[in-house]
Write a structure and sequence with these properties.
By secondary structure, the protein is mainly alpha-helical. About 65% of the residues lie in helices and about 0% in strands. It has 23 helices and four strands. It has a two-stranded antiparallel ribbon with strand order 1-2. α6 packs antiparallel against α7 and α11 (about 205-230) runs parallel beside α20. The longest helix has 26 residues, at about 205-230. The protein is globular.
Length: about 500
């Protein structure tokens, strides 16, 4: 039976069981949500004021957890113990360790000159106008999939490929949109991406399996996005034709940097063949370092070094890879702890029962509710990983009730998160790219800056992903369930 036919019919959903809260709060079950609600309001407020930062989000989570104490009518000792029980859950710990390894691998690839190698491909392509915009999207997608950081991709390609595209007659708006779209592709699909790791671990899924299951969604969005960039990406065909600009582009390229695709391919193959992500990343790092040294694209001191004059003494790519995720690691632990307090206080059970009054027996409505929750939080919180962490407990609770498979839940969570984070004008990566282009104007005074409000309608990869996941929720395309043993099945088991 097709999924679309079984989305609203089939086995009846039994009345949800009500768990007796082990913590009590003023305002009842809603009082247990105070820490997370405060964090969301804090994140929205700091985003609107342009004050959003990772450490700021950590402080908001800490303030929210402290505020929760004053709403708790149980012993404060029980509240504290409940929080620490939440902090020790494997969900947050697994995500943090995976982030550290992914960050180290990404930094090694960047030190090894992967982006310079990809830019070299662009420089020798002789493509102009829309074809160059399409190529930029493709190269940005490859780079972001390799290093797993959409933010890093945005900065690198706005610095190198954006000026080059203007020189060869590409439209500035579509060129900027292509860079953001390429960043989305890797942020959504890469096994080493922070959003991929969070979406998988928070739903109790393995990263390789999640990546395999979401490829169809990513590629379905990428193919039409690529075509549209080629068709509409042409701008002033006369180009800038500034010899100094062309020379600067050429100096920023190095074909030897392409050898760093070897460790990237190794990690991808190992991960997709079922190896644990940490195993895959370890082999990737151990391969990338000698490849870089043999090719001469970097030095070992760039990987790790000791400098008594530097903060923390140790420097290098491995150190930066870990440092880049410390604040987010703390944040995910605090949010997981806040979510556990909601479980202990009955909030998760209460919210799920309210949603189920509307959802009833409809899997379609259940997935639309998941899609809506993720979209709402990502529209408000500009750092997409933080929004994903905040939405994850609701996705897990609701999806588990309706036996939706963990891969499917992770895909709904990640696709919408990765997409919307790079679309809205107030989104952190959009503002990051815009500020990077503006900073380049001191070097290239002819370089046009595209306003965030002008680029957001044309971030095709993001819009297509959002629409595809909405249609998937409506039609049941790609929907699978899990049985009592956690196995993936086509039909929803009886409850």
């Amino acid at each position: 039976m097709p999924h679309s036919a079984s989305s609203d019919t089939g086995h009846s959903t039994s009345a949800p069981h009500t768990k007796q809260p082990t913590l009590t709060f003023r305002l009842g079950a809603w009082g247990a949500a105070i820490p997370l609600v405060f964090f969301v309001v804090w994140a929205i407020a700091t985003s609107i004021l342009g004050l959003s930062s990772e450490i700021g989000l950590v402080m908001g989570a800490l303030f929210g957890l402290t505020l929760g104490l004053f709403f708790c009518t149980s012993r404060w000792e029980d509240y504290a113990n409940g929080l620490f029980d939440g902090l020790t859950q494997p969900i947050g710990v697994v995500a943090i360790v995976a982030w550290f390894y992914a960050g180290m691998f990404a930094q090694v690839l960047q030190v090894g000159g992967l982006v310079e190698g990809l830019v070299w491909l662009g420089s020798i392509s002789d493509m102009t106008g829309g074809w160059f915009v399409g190529l930029t999207f493709l190269l940005a997608a490859i780079f972001s999939t390799a290093v797993g950081t959409g933010y890093g991709t945005t900065v690198a390609f706005c610095t190198l490929m954006y000026p080059a595209g203007i020189v060869v007659g590409s439209d500035p708006t579509f060129l900027f949109a292509a860079i953001l779209s390429g960043a989305i592709f890797g942020d959504n699909l890469a096994p080493v991406s922070d959003t991929t790791i969070v979406s998988a671990t928070t739903q109790g899924a393995d990263v390789p399996g999640v990546v395999r299951s979401r490829f169809k969604y990513s590629i379905m969005a990428a193919v039409p996005a690529m075509a549209l960039f080629v068709i509409f990406g042409s701008g002033d065909q006369s180009g800038v034709a500034d010899p100094s600009a062309v020379q600067a582009m050429q100096q920023a390229t190095n074909p030897l940097g392409l050898v760093m695709l070897i460790p990237f391919a190794l990690v991808l193959i190992l991960a997709l063949r079922g190896q644990h992500l940490l195993t895959s990343l370890t082999w990737g790092i151990l391969t990338a370092i000698p490849v870089m040294l043999i090719a001469g694209t970097g030095e070992f001191s760039q990987i790790i070094a000791f400098d008594a004059n530097a903060d923390g003494v140790m420097t290098g790519a491995l150190v930066r890879g870990v440092e880049g995720y410390v604040n987010m690691g703390i944040l995910i632990l605090l949010i997981v702890g806040a979510a556990h307090l909601m479980t202990l206080g009955g909030t998760m059970d209460h919210v799920t029962r309210l949603l189920m009054r509307w959802i009833k027996n409809s899997i379609r409505r259940a997935e639309l509710a998941i899609w809506g929750i993720v979209a709402l939080l990502n529209s408000a919180i500009t750092i997409n990983t933080a929004a994903e962490i905040a939405a994850a407990p609701f996705v897990r609770e609701l999806g588990t009730r309706y036996r939706i498979h963990r891969y499917r839940r992770a895909n709904m969570l990640d696709a919408v998160t990765s997409a919307l984070g790079y679309i809205f004008p107030w989104g952190a990566p959009v503002l990051l790219g815009w500020s990077t282009i503006q900073s380049m104007q001191s070097t290239y005074d002819w370089l046009p800056a595209v306003a965030p409000t002008a680029v957001f309608p044309f971030v095709f990869q993001g819009w297509f992903l959002v629409i595809i996941m909405l249609l998937a929720a409506i039609t049941g395309w790609g929907l699978t369930f899990e049985d009592d043993d956690g196995n993936e099945v086509k039909e929803r088991p009886a409850q």
